[in-house]
Amino acid sequence: MQIFLRSLTSRTVALDVQPGDTVHDLQRAIQHQVDAVPPHRQRLAFNTTALDDPAKTLRDYRVTPGATLRLALGLRGGIDFQHRAGSKFGGGGVMSEQQAAADRKERLRKLALETVDLNKDPYFLKNHLGTFECKLCLTLHTTEGNYLAHTQGKRHQQNLGRRAAREEKLGIAANANANANANADQQQLQAQANKAAIKIGRPGYKVTKSRDLRTKQRTLLFEVDYPQAENQPRHRFMSTFEQRVEAADKTYQFLLFACEPYETVAFKVPNEPLDKREGAFFTNWDASTNTFTLRMSLADPAAAAAAAELQRKRAASAGPGAAGAPKRRVLAADAGVVH
Fold it and tell me: What is the tally of structural domains in the chain?
């Protein structure tokens, strides 16, 4: 019969077993086929029942064809009460619940760092600020070890159980293996197509720096030429934390231009508020000359601060009677028109 296993990285894997196979046989199969976790460190669960007896069979635990098991890490050994940090020599005592929880969390973190590959975890996300997020539990973590300790905690395991129960109820788990194979084939074809695509180099460009005579704002004009463009170019702003070419600097950002079959080009610009009013920020694609134009205006930080201070003084002079009146938020883009 065929059953499904939700691995440490939340990946669903299909296994071919027999009802008479023992839990130990299943653990050995998991060690060789899935995550290479030794059997004595595996902790299997089916619904709310833990498969903790290696001698019992899958039939004893009422594991039916198409069932979904969950895999977690099990800790070995106990706690050294006499030689823990801050204890006196020869003084045992009982460890507090907070100390026991901290010790368990640290051991889980070290164990997970040795056995779990974060590149295969679908819920692991590194954001543009350099921190890590769990897309399943919507939690924020400062280090990879902190995230791995969270994945072995009660909250994450409960959410994995709820997700598995919901997928099993909707009949999604039965098609997980077929979908995984289809996705792998699609990714392979996409990789081959990307490899076969021929890049013809970087496009020509021209950057003009100027200052608006009316608003005294600094402006940047980008003119990028795509003589053999297949479609209209695209652009976007990217934080320096999203790239790995150079050290991140929050005072700058990147402006990217992309168009097939040309290579993507990036311009390093100041990370300052932009004036996106009509006429201050615009893009244009000239199909006759195949030239993409983008004009951006940087808002004056001093004018933005002055506008914020003016708004604060107006709110203070309105008195307590105007507390219920709607308040307009002063953006950096409005700083150029405040006198």
Answer: 4
